[in-house]
């Protein structure tokens, strides 16, 4: 029986703890926040999208950074195994929604956290306690030093502290500090799955407006980098919501490339069908002011913005709208533009991109190649994926790989 210390009581830490306990190891989980799993509770808007219901090969297509590193871990703990564990062993009924996203039937992230705490079971959970540094001897990690100076020795230490996104939930970059102490390279963290800041004030004028069933396209110059249908939100600084978060992961360097978004407000209609619909509406509203010409087609807060972008006189009659003005309206409804200036900051990103270099970690065991006895799992590693449950799936798979190796040693 080995003694294992896990730093971080999030998804990866608790999953690894449960797997290790069931393999007969003595496990201590140390969490610097007053309670475990805080970030887990806000994932999926509080519903917890815990994985994606697909095979490992399909899963890897949605990993943005270093997918090859995860090949072994994902095949050892694929989504199917995670789903079976939660449903059959932990009693949490699951459902699969659009995009193969997996949620608890209850739509409560708390149910997933409670299940993980049950899974971790008899492990020792220490909260509100920080790990100040690793306990290193003869080039090997043999434990940790806690706040106050106490040394806790162990046969293996797993760092599962997350990245630096949403620091109020406990992701404050402690894992990077510990990894550096052991000699690891840290790939510069940057925000991924984050809101986007507009150049101008088009979105700001519609602040609070949520759009559903629209198609969003991200352009890098003249190249399409992302397009998908779903939901988005206009904010005081730009745009947010599921579609925008997904699009943000495809943005490389905003200083080097020009990025913009276009929104197809009526993706269910062809340009010809939309033109027919507009003509019918204009005929019904022919004697009203142009300010009301889009009342049947667009949300109220978007109508004046659309007309302004078209340069239309809102006081003239609808029957005076020219063919050229109608053409411009149709173009904008199929490709409403938002120019981009920047990404949101790391503090509000769903996921951190960057972290411990995977070149220095064994992909089969998650053990450090530079410091034996030290392991990593989850977001602290330089791996991240698009939205859809993939990032939690990565946390579970890497945690499982580490726990499986402890059993073999």
UniProtKB/TrEMBL annotation:
Gene3D superfamilies: FAD/NAD(P)-binding domain (3.50.50.60), HI0933 insert domain-like (1.10.8.260), Translation factors (2.40.30.10). Pfam families: HI0933_like, HI0933_like_1st. Residues 3-404 form the RsdA/BaiN/AoA(So)-like Rossmann fold-like domain. Residues 191-351 form the RsdA/BaiN/AoA(So)-like insert domain. Keywords: FAD, Flavoprotein. InterPro entries: BaiN-like, BaiN-like_dom_sf, FAD/NAD-bd_sf, RsdA/BaiN/AoA(So)-like_dom, RsdA/BaiN/AoA(So)_Rossmann. Its cofactor is FAD. It comes from the Bacteria. This is NAD(P)/FAD-dependent oxidoreductase. The lineage of its organism: Bacteria, Bacillati, Bacillota, Clostridia, Eubacteriales.
